[in-house]
Amino acid sequence: MRDSEASPPTSSKFSTGVVLRRTRSFYYVDLGQAEPRLCRIRGNLFQDNASEARVAVGDVVVVEPDAAEDAGWIRELQPRHSRLARRSREGLPEQTLVANAEQLLIVAALKRPEFRHGVVDRLIVAGLDGGLTPVLVLNKADLGETQETATIQKLYSDLGYTVLLTSATVPSGLNELRACLRQRTSVLAGHSGVGKSSLVKALYPDWEIRVGAVNQKRGKGRHTTTMAQMFRLPKGGYLVDTPGIRELEPLGVTRKTLDQHFVEFAPLQTQCRFASCSHRHEPDCAVQQGVAEGAISAVRYRSYVAFWESLES
Ligand code: GDP
Ligand code: ZN
User: What separation in Å is there between the alpha carbon of 312 and the centre of ligand 2?
Assistant: First the structure.
């Protein structure tokens, strides 16, 4: 047999797929078939012994199928182009929650619960920090659009973010949302009660059973409750459901780099008197001046200051 000795993992007996979800020892890999394949990792795949923690939902992996067991072995992890991580627990290294996602869908309600800039702006930073494009989904539009709705829409679209107005109950805005999801890998985030599950059900009614089934399993298995999981969309793309908003911490962000993730601050930074300006109380700060003149929104500035103060010095 030709090349049998140096058979690379890309040879025909291997398949490339995407990790849809995982438990402590199993990885459900989408190989383009109806059902994901249940895979495991060989102990010696990675150099360090934290290998199990290194393959995340969204990772592209090379799988060696095991025909006898209708299972498979993960043989290779391909490089990531984006990463949402979460802080470690019990002294473990920080963990990748979702790999390779392209956009972070930040769902917020216009009312009930009240819209909170602080939450939205924090998630925008988390998305940008991980290499994802933030998209704002303003849900519960049926509860009545207010002056504030238009202000919020304008604020974020002027910053360059896509803003979608939806209602899961009426329903409205779902075609735009579906188009935004198509052919992309999107992570769904936002506080509980804003309507994330309702939107998913309204968009993909066929999923009701599948989503429900997974949720039931989640209730049973302790370690799966904190894991993200990914669903393949009918017309291409994936939707990732994350366990909780607190998990999406922008771990790469420091007090020094935070201003880079507030896009409207960027063009002004070089005009501050001090290169290390934190834009809070320094004299001749172009950002503070921008706020005073109305070029920078006061709510965004308040989000920045609150965020800055929450970061360790
Ligand atoms: P999740 O925690 O973000 O998944 O939120 P849910 O989907 O569970 O929704 C929370 C509550 O808001 C439920 O009572 C939903 O019926 C309600 N809800 C969700 N979407 C809408 C909407 O577009 N309009 C209104 N009026 N209520 C909604
Ligand atoms: Zn400044």
Answer: 19
Please tell me whether residues 147 and 221 are part of one structural domain.
Answer: yes
**Dihedral through CA 229, CA 248, CA 179, CA 21, nearest 10?**
-10
- Does 264 reside within a domain? yes
At residue 241, φ and ψ (nearest 5 deg) are -105, 120
Split at pLDDT 50, 70, 90, the class of 46 is low
Same domain, 117 and 218: yes
Q: How far is the CA of 200 from the centre of ligand 1 (A)?
A: 11
Could you tell me if residue 158 is left (phi over 0), alpha (psi between -120 and 50 degrees) or otherwise beta?
alpha
Residue 225: pLDDT over 70: no
Contacts of 181 (CB under 8 A, 6+ apart): 105, 203, 233, 237, 239
Report the share of the chain in percent with pLDDT over 90.
62
Cβ proximity of 16 and 60 under 8 Å: yes
CATH code: domain of residue 305:
1.10.40.50
Residue 194 CB less than 6 A away from ligand 1 = yes
Task: Quote the ligand 1 centre to 138 CA distance (angstroms).
Answer: 12
The counts of H helices and E strands in the chain are: 9, 13
Residue 3 falls inside a structural domain: no
Token pair 């599950």 is at which residue? 197
Domain count across the chain: 3
- 3 band by pLDDT with thresholds 50, 70 and 90: very low
- Same domain? 146 vs 30: no
Q: Could you tell me the residue range of the domain that residue 277 belongs to?
A: 258-310
User: Which of 5-19, 127-141, 258-272 has the lowest average pLDDT?
Assistant: 5-19
